[in-house]
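Record minuted for completeness.

…
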Amino acid sequence: MSIMVIGSFMMDLVIGAERAPQAGETVIGRSFDRFPGGKGANQAVAAARLGAKVSMAGKLGRDSFGEQFLQVLQQEGIERSDVLVDGEAPTGVGNIVLEQGGQNRIIVVPGANMKFTAEETRRLEAGIKASRMLIMQLEMELEVVVQAADIADKCGIPVILNPAPARPLPRDLLRKITYLTPNESELALLTGIAADTEENLILGAQKLRDQGVACVIVTLAEKGALVADSTGVTRVEGYPVEPVDTVAAGDSFNGALAAELIRGASVQEAVRFANAVGALTVTRHGAIPSLPRREEVELFLQERKTGA
C-alpha cells in the first residue's frame, strides 16, 4: 500500500445551532445529523479519494457503528485487514456542536480506539514497511504512536503526525516524525509559545525543528500554512471560502498532504494542494461526506487560477 493510516474511528453526532450554550444554559438546536468520522478514518478516506492506495489500522466496537465503518472502508477501497473489533468497548463517538458560522465544539468518547495496544501495533511492522508513508494522530494511546514511529524509523518510512488532540510529546518521538502538522492552538500547547503573531508562529515551528522534527507544517485555516524545514520558513497561502462545517478540515489537509507527497510533489506543492482540499471540505457538511475527490480539487484550483 502507498499509505498506512493508524488511527481513530468516531461516529460524529452533530447538533447544528446558532451558537454553543454557555454553562447552565439551554439552546434550541436547528438540526441533528450522524456522520462517520474520526481523525484516522477521515485522513484515510481523504487520501483514498485523492487517488492513493490506503490501508488502515485501528479498533472498532462490536456494534452498529462499527459495522457502518467497515462498510465505509470497503466502499472507499481502503484495505481493512488491520482494523480490529473489540468485544467490550463501543465504537468511538464524537459529540459536535456546529455553530451558525461553521465553527465547532467537540467532545469525543474514544471507546474502542483506546483499546488498540502496543503489542497489536508491533504486528503492523510488515504493513508499515510495505508503505511509502505512515499517518498517525493522537486519538489513540500514545504508546501506540510511539511504537509505530519506532517501526517506521527502523524501516525508513516517512511519518506524518497530526498532533490532535494536542498533548505534550516526548522528544524521542519528535525525532522520528518527518512531518508534524499542528494548528495554531496545538503549536502553542506543544511549545509553550503563544501562536498569536507571525513571529511566534515561526519561533514555535523552529522550536519543534530544534527538538528533532524534520518538517513542521502549521495549518492556519483560510490563511494557509507555515512550513519550516531545512530550507527555511515559507508561507503557503490558503483559499478563503465561506465555511459551513469545519469538522474535517485538518484531517482532509493531512490526507491530501500524504497523497501529494507520495506522488512526488515538493512540500510546498503538497501543502498548496492540501490547502485547496481543506477549503473545499469546509464548504460541505459532515466529516467523511465532505471529503472531495481529486477531480473536484483540480477543478477548484483551475477556477481559482482563472478567477472563475
Notes: The two ends are 37 Å apart (CA to CA).
